[in-house]
Prior knowledge:
The complex is a heterodimer. By secondary structure, chain A is an alpha/beta fold. Chain A has a single domain, classed as fumarase (Alpha-Beta Barrel). Chain A is 29% helix and 36% strand. Chain A contains 6 helices and 8 strands; from the N terminus they run E-H-E-H-E-E-H-E-H-E-H-E-E-H. In chain A, strand 5, helix 4 and strand 6 form a beta-alpha-beta unit. In chain A, helix 3 runs parallel beside helix 4 (109-118). The longest helix of chain A is centred in the last third of the chain and has 19 residues, at 175-193. Chain B has 2 domains: 6-23 and 68-151 and 279-294, CATH 3.30.1330; 153-274, CATH 3.30.1330. In chain B, 38% of the residues lie in helices and 21% in strands. Chain B is built from 8 helices and 9 strands. In chain B, helix 4 links the parallel strand 1 (73-81) and strand 2. In chain B, helix 1 (6-22) crosses helix 4, helix 2 (28-40) runs antiparallel to helix 3 (44-62) and helix 6 runs parallel beside helix 8. The mean pLDDT of chain B is 97. The chains are: A alpha/beta, B alpha+beta.
Amino acid sequence: xxxxxxxxxxxxxxxxxxxxxxxxxxxxxxxxxxxxNLMRIFDKNTxxxxxxxxxxxxxxxxxxxxxxxxxxxxxxxxxxTSMRMDRFTEGLLRDYGVRALLGxxxxxxxxxxxxxxxxxxxxxxxGGAAAMETLQIEEIEKVFWEDLMPECIWQIRFKGFGPLTVxxxxxxxxxxxxxxxxxxxxTVEILKKMxxx
Amino acid sequence: xxxxxxxxxxVETVCRDLYIQSLKEIPPDVVAALERSxxxxxxxxxxxxxxxxxxxxxxxxxxxxxxxxxxxxxxxxVEIGGELRLDGSQLTAAIIRGTERATREHxxxxxxxxxxxxxxxQTNSGQRIPIIHYDFTPNSxxxxxxxxxxxxxSENMSFMQMLxxxxxxxxxxxxxxxxxxxxxxxxxxxxxxxVGIGGSSDLCMTLAKKATTRSIGSKNLDSELAALEEELxxxxxxxxxxxxxxxxxxxxxxxxxxxxxxxxxxxxxxxxIQCWRAERRRARISPDEQVVVGF
Lengths: 197, 295
């Protein structure tokens, strides 16, 4: 499987060549987002204080140490379950031009359809492996909306973040969703084999 | 044997260290199981994910890093030797202080909030948290503390049902398979599956959770339940969910079953899941205040 290395912000033509299962390394700024700040953007109609055209957004769960006003260093920065943020996919792609959502566990079929339409991908981060992820951080450059701590928007600069696995591509494939659907069908077979209906 | 006052201070620092170190050092039986599973995977994606797991475990040990950012719900399983004379309320207070000191002194992310207002004291403690289970060991004069920082990705995949007696063992098997396979990528597979059978509803779930703390490779002493553990584990691994739900040969590292007798009208079953790190750490404190740490 091909391995790609991109610098953020991402270009649509780069994103459109990716296929599920491909490995991707990212360099540059990735924005950490999660429930609290996305709810402010979309439920309270407050636009994000940063330019997200071509951006990579990470469903993030930061564990940080404060160094001074607005300045933090990572203690353990890991990835949280994406499905909680599924309903924000459309707004992020349509209104703000986001090109990649990064997280763990996958997103819905609806999100995959939107990614096909707008030219964006889901990159699966290895959940629970925060130690590796943390060492790939060069710097937490900026923090927006500190009042939401720890659910602020984190502007994090990575060097060689990954390899991440393409979970949803722009061609309509959704790897985690397909694996899950196959497993559900398989469960019926397994039970039958065990003599259970 | 009556303990000295310094015993409680020792319990406090032991609990602090158990919390911090449990997040950094993954139990060797879990590491060995992950290493074995990594070798069984045939796809590039699954091998990539296992490599990330093993790399993070290595960083935890060698670079003194927290392996996962989730500091979990702190849970202590305490076994008090029957010959040990101590003040239970002071013991509880020491465990709580140890939890709070770990959070403040490391520092650790405080993952604990009030259930409705979502208020966070930044201490990883709160009403009825940390969770402390007490048990007693006859003919013993030591205090055993087993700690687990229970991560939420897997804890959110907890399931319990009061089946009917007529549903029998098949009903239990069906419930366990549908729930664990249905959990998919969410609990960060490959997982350690704890199954509780019998008891009351609350005891049943406690048994399921306790089962996840057993070391991988251990078997239930009852041969029928040991066979059930093997059968369920093999069945879950046929699902193909694999690491991070991206597809692969290993979805469960182990299935552990614990049981209790129940009521004539009841057939309770519970599932509790640990993620791939299955963190746990234990300490044995003797009355002369010697501490031995293990997993």
